[in-house]
Amino acid sequence: MTLSSIFSFRFKYNILLFIQKFKGYPFFKRIEISKDRNKAFFFLAADYGNLGDCAITFAQTKFIEENSNYEVIEIPISKTAEGIWFVKEKITKADIVVTVGGGNMGEMYDQIEFLRQLVIKNFPANKIISFPQTFDFSDSSLGKKSLVIAKKIYSRHTNLHLVAREETSYKQMKLEFNHNQIYITPDIVLSLSENLQKKREGVIICMRADEEKRLTPEENSSVIELIKNNFNKYEFYDTHIGNTNLNSKEREYELNKIWKAFSNCKLVITDRLHGMIFCHITNTPALVFQNTNHKVRETYDWIRKNSNIKVVSNFDLNDVESFIKEFQSQRDNYITNCDLDYSPLIKLLN
User: Fold this and answer.
1) Residues linked to residue 160 through DSSP beta bridges, in sequence order
2) What is the average pLDDT value for the chain, to the nearest integer?
3) The pTM is what?
4) What InterPro entries would the database entry show (predicted)?
5) Which of 42, 257, 302, 322 lies deepest, with the highest CB count within 10 Å?
6) Alpha carbon distance 24, 347 (integer Å)
7) Do 39 and 64 form a contact (C-beta atoms < 8 A)?
8) Does residue 184 belong to any structural domain of this protein?
C-alpha cells in the first residue's frame, strides 16, 4: 500500500459516494424498519469470506440485540456508499451508529479505515461506537501520515466512542485520540459460546499466508511435518474462504461449519487470532503461534486461564513437540472461568 494508492482510492470513492446520492439505495429497499424502536445502524458489516470478520459481525449484532433495546440494521461493507444515503434518510437523534470491530484501524487495511472515517464524517449529530479494535498504525512514514488523517477526522466528532480490544491498543488510542472517549473490552467474538460437545479426532491446521504471518516457511513446514508424524488424521482449514457478498444466512452457515469442524477435532494448530478465539468458544485445545503484531499475544491475556490453549512465544521445534505430547496426554477438556468484562460496551448501549 502506497500513499498514492491510498489517496487514489479515497478520491474515487468520494466520487462514487456523490454519484450514489442520485441513484438512491435499491439494496436497502427490501429492509423493513420498525417505527417503534430506536435503531443501531451497523456500518462495515462483513459480507466477504474472512470468517474472523464474519464472526465479529455476527457476534456484534447478537451482542447489541441481547444487551440493548436497539433494532440492529446491518450495512454491508460493500454497500457503504449506498448505506450512507439510506441511513441519512432514516436516522433520528435517538438512533446510534456502530462500526465493526476487528483489526482494521490503521494503514494496513486503509480502505476499511477510510470507510470508517467516511461514516464518522457523515453522522456528526449521532453517537458513534467503534466496537473493539486493534490500533494498527505503524511507525512507517505511511503509517504516520495515515494516523494524522485519522486523528483529524476522529477529533472533530464530539460523541465518538472508541473501544480497544487489547492493552497496547488502549494505551495508543488514549494517547493519539485524546479528544475521544476510549474504553477497553475483549474481542467481541469472545462473548460467544459455541461448544458443540462432539467426539473429537484428528488435527486442524489453520495458518496464515499473508503479511501478518510471523513463522518462516521452514518453521511452518517443520510444524506440519511434526503433526503428520504424531497424528493419523489431519486437515487444513483456513478462516478465509474467499466468498464475497455473503448474506446473513450464508455467513451463519459458514461460521457454524467451521465451529463444528473445530469442535470435532482434538487439536488446532493456528497463527490466526480468530483461529485461537474459535478454539476458546468451542472449548477446543489449540497450539497458537504469534503473528507480526501484538493482537494474538494480548488477546490471549484475556483467556489465559483457559488451560486448553497454549501460545508459543518464541519458536522452538522441541517446545512445539513437547506441547503436542502434552495435548495428547490430556483426557479432559475444560475451561476455567475467564471473567470477560464487557460492561463498558453495555453501558455505552444503554
Assistant:
1) 128
2) 91
3) 0.93
4) Polysacch_pyruvyl_Trfase
5) 42
6) 35
7) no
8) yes
Of 153, 173, 157, give the one whose Cα is nearest residue 165: 173
User: Is the pLDDT assigned to residue 331 strictly greater than 60?
Assistant: no
Domain span at 141? 3-191+343-348
Cell 438512491 found at: 24
Tell me which residue of 259, 255, 254, 261 sits closest to 202, measured CA to CA.
Answer: 261
Same domain, 46 and 20: yes
Residues 179 and 250 in one domain: no
Residue 108 sits at φ, ψ, to 5 deg, of -60, -40
> In the structure, what pLDDT confidence band is assigned to residue 199 with cuts at 50, 70 and 90?
confident
- pLDDT tens for 113-158 read 999 999 999 999 999 999 999 999 999 999 999 999 999 999 999 9
- Contact between 257 and 194 under an 8 Å Cβ cutoff? The reply is no
Contact between 47 and 251 (Cβ < 8 Å): yes
More confident residue, 122 or 1: 122
The CA-based dihedral angle spanning residues 123, 128, 131, 132, taken in that order and rounded to the nearest 10 degrees: 110
With a cut of 70, say whether residue 3 has pLDDT above it. Answer: no
Q: Is the pLDDT of residue 14 over 70?
A: yes
Exposure class string for 96-121: b at 16+ Cβ within 10 A, else e: bbbbbbbbbbbbbebebbbbbbbbbe
Contact (Cβ atoms closer than 8 angstroms) between residue 40 and residue 74: no
Q: What is the DSSP letter of 232?
A: S
Q: Model confidence over 71-86: pLDDT tens digits?
A: 999 999 999 999 999 9
Q: Which helix (H) or strand (E) holds 148?
A: helix 141-155
Q: CA-CA distance, 265 to 235, in Å (whole number)?
A: 10
Query: What is the total count of domains within the chain?
Result: 2
Please indicate, yes or no, whether residues 41 and 181 belong to a single structural domain of this protein.
Answer: yes
Is 310 in the same domain as 214?
yes
Tell whether 207 and 181 lie within a shared domain: no
